[in-house]
Amino acid sequence: MDAPISGTGGPTAKAARERHWVSYPRFLLHALAAATDGPPLFYVWMILLTGVALVGANAWAQQVASGMALTGMSDHVSWGLYIANFTFAVGVAAGGVMMVIPAYLYKDHDMHEVVILGELLAIAAILMAMLSVMVDLGRPERFWHLVPGLGQFNWPISMLSWDVLVLNGYLLLNLHICGYMLYMRFLGRTPDPRWYVPFVLVSIVWAVSIHTVTAFLYSGLGGRPLWNSALLAPRFLVSAFVSGPALIIAVLAVVERFTPFRPADGPVRTLVRILRVTVLANLFMLASEVFTEFYAGGAHTDSARYLFLGLHGHARLVPWIWTAITLNAVAAALFLLPSVTRRRGVLLAACAMTFVGVWIEKGMGLVVPGFIPGQLHEVVEYTPSVTEWRVTAGIWAFGAMVYTVALKVALPILDGRAARRASAAGD
Amino acid sequence: MDERTRPLRRRTLLKAAAGAVGVAAAGRAFSPLLGPWDSLTLDEVLQRHYSELTPEDKERVFRRLEEKARQDYGVAVTISDPQPRPRTKFGYALNLSLCIGCRQCAQACHRENNHDRRTRNTYITVMEIGKGTLDLSRANSRYDHPVPLPDKTYMPVQCQQCDRPPCTAVCPVRATWKEPDGIVVVDYDWCIGCRYCEAACPYHARRFNWAKPEVPAAEVNPDQAYLSNRIRPAGTMEKCTFCLHRVRMGRLPACLEACPAGARVFGNLLDPGSEVRQVIATKRVYVLKEGLGTVPSFYYFFTV
Amino acid sequence: MHRGEGERVWAIALALGAAAGCFGGPDPRPLARDEVAPRAPGAAWAYPEELHRPYAVLGTNAGVDDANGKPARIPCRVCHDRLEPKDENRYALRIGGFHAGVAIEHGDLTCRSCHEPPRFEGFRLQDGRPVAYADVMRLCAQCHGLQARDWQRGLHGGMTGHWDRDSGPRTRNHCIDCHHAHRPAIPRMVPAPLPLPRFQDEPGQAARTGDLDG
Prior knowledge:
heterotrimer, A: mainly alpha, 15 helices, C: alpha+beta, 26% helix, elongated
């Protein structure tokens, strides 16, 4: 293996002088090999995802070529599926913090073992969020106008400029934390807390900030009564703490089923305890919004009326929101069952239901109805076009690819399998 | 060692082949991008923000845009850049007692500003409101019967040129801003097309170019300004500029000239003798959605 | 401990951001303000204000076009130099003969409210004084004082040309450009075509347009 440059100092000092320019490329090469190697099912999965991602890429390229007219959006409903997915993906990214807090603040050892699953999920979700915004741009080739220093960055006035900062910051934080931890474990060394604990603590606050900023994006608009609510940021965070943990429980189950990695039971129990609270809190906040809207009434309630009951005979979103509420309510009931942690099938069903429920609630249940009726109370409805569904599926497939690859690299390293192999090869 | 490397090598080869197939597929997937982006020159892609353009830059950019209009629309246009006049802040007033809802203003806007012909786009939405209310939630913008009906009020709504515009605040790239004469403009060559401004505007004053506008050569208005009625590129936002290319030359906006009811009043809000100031001084005026604090420069009033 | 500190920092950062948002950054192009009036009150303009006038003399349309393609006009005096108006038509709202088709839907007014023989070159004010066709607005202003005052202030009636008459002239309409004297209500008209909320050639466009409701 790489020898220390000089013999002075203890083992820590020696390790610090390790020649990273040799070992880091080796780490990357190992990662590349691990990411492209696996059982047949892995190849099937990756080919499937690549196919869907390319279909999405093609749909996006056509949208750029012939204009956003290929989407179902209009001057009345000027944001649709893309921004809905953006909002949801930011939530998933922020939701990963529900693993980080127990692991680092409450020294939950079992959670600490698998916390990187949450951090890697944040990376994949942030990439999905960024792609969702990218495909929503009418002039994607002008994205450099957003780069501070290069373009004209309207910071701090525009909440979107805050979003650019916090999303990129969160991505970098998680890339650093995951990259550093994995690299150290790959080298078979104990990570130096100075190099990750401060970043982890910052990332906890940062996770809250990304979804707060995303909520402020909407709630700061005085002309959109459905969004112009102080409850929006709390609602976003709570629903993020539903969708994130729900997805991670499912991922832990998949990991247990398809890989040699054996996560402990503790993390799932902790996540279920979190979900028992957040699913109910999310429903409660929705109920508070509904009460406030409908009890007071008036023209400002029209969006909520359109969403929940339909307005002037237009009711395209009504099935969506009631589906979401039903899914979340049933999931809440299932999570409350004392036996839910033992009954894997029930648990996964509850996770799937609430994940879909929150997805609908934030997109078709919040972003779209914010535009209906329009600012002059015109009702123009919205249905995502085939192009939008394709692009969205492509982004999800891309996110799943990133996450699969990340887990494929990370899990053996965490297991110690990679370190054993590396040291065997070194010897 | 050999036992381990051989299958590995075969597998590496397979991986490389799969990678090549993947790259080829990706190339095909992205191939539609080669169509319209062929015509994008480096100069266009790297063009700076309006506020950073030197007079030489402007000269080069405007000539290029004129040439592009000639190629794309087969018509010779002039693109000018009239500057705000000193001590001038534009204001508009509209007499709801007179408006008959004929949408001639919207039609004039459509022609003057080189709007897309397929969508019959315009910056003006005319609302039909029953008597006894001014609540927009009880209004209808999709009427198509002969007007005016005796029991209705008609209310055209266009950009209110707010003094505290929510649309400019939210723009992440400063592609839209308020000029010294009060007109909120868009640099169509800087806008990234995120449509946040469209979500923020409380007056439905903004429009997005969902596709490249179609205007027959014979109908193109060749008197164009960079910040105003030049034919907008696809994928960018646009909005009413009070006909900046006209009003900065001292002319009246197209919607005012088209109004057969004489319901529209335009002028310099800083000139106490101007017609629009006369409206404010002698009539009871109101502004749309005043509670939002946008401070519009567009006033509605009644004869009595 | 750590979390508490982190959240405080976060709150401060947010508050700072919000404060910056409220006060805004430096505005590169400040709004013009009314410290100095742009022009002295009542100062003369460089260009005139013209009054649009449809016809030179009072008359009636012949119902055919003249050589220039404009409706041929027959001045009143062509006949009324020789013919006395019939007295039975004094309070009529509809009359026959040459004037068939004239119908007065203008409050309680009748023919002689404005027309007074033998002066068919112009009109008659309520106090009996004559008023020329060119000054028809004085006639209207007898009843419509509010509108006349609004017109004088530039608040009523269409115009074309320049808002700034130091840059160019302006042409203004007078009453009977828009209001027919006999039926002053602006006639009902078919409005200009509605804009479509989306592209016509989009599949499902018809359905989407049909969805619109106000």
